[in-house]
Amino acid sequence: MFDPKVLPLTGQSPSVQAKIGIRCSSLSFVSGTKSILSNVSATFPKNGVSVIMGPNGAGKSVLLRTIIGLLKPTSGFVQLDADFAGHTAMVFQRPVLIRRTVQGNLAHALAIARYPRNKRKNRMAELIAISGLKGLEKTPARQLSGGEQQRLQMVRALASGPKLILLDEPSASLDPQSTFAIEQIIKTVSENKTKIILVTHDTGQAKRLAHDVTFIHKGRLIEQNDAYDYFNSPKSPLVKSYLEGELLV
Fold first, then answer.
1. Using CB atoms within 10 A of its CB, is residue 188 exposed (0-12), middle (13-18) or buried (19+)?
2. What kind and span of H or E run contains 50?
3. What is the pLDDT of residues 91-121, one digit of tens each?
């Protein structure tokens, strides 16, 4: 694990007129002899929902992990706004939960985050409300549906009040109702001024949630644009092909 540089960032994203929250500078990541990221330079606004898209194997998940510090890039570096320092979280595609009840999972997360004891009960109630899991507090996590487990994982990640949360395909393989519930959590969190970076293959989901979109292909940054222009007038033929369902790898 490496620590992204934490520096005050100023300036503007090339596609979104907003303060920069994250800057990736010439990021490359090589695993063995395989290049997964190649010289990726991108900026992400400090607020809103930034979506990362691209075909399978494009390097999206590796990019997320380098941003949050779970992977050390082979070269290049990541800068985070100082407000994000020590206030980040990541949610993976497959829920990782402990063998406790819904309430037990949240209580554990709050304890790990050293959330004030006298405020934990109210915070837990807030998280339950955001998750839509009211009435399931005493249910063992393993007995929840896949969508319910993912919602629990998401609000557990929110227990410490992160300023930046990275989501790696949180609604993959979920039914429409569960996907809707996940998107409602994302919208609520974003409206509460938490920065979100979301990896998704779901074009409809990206259209519903994204303020800006970053597209990568074969480890390279192809396009970064505000959501409206990305979907309605993409600059790159690769993006156009992807949105038309013609670019698979």
1. middle
2. strand 49-53
3. 988 777 778 999 999 999 999 888 999 999 9
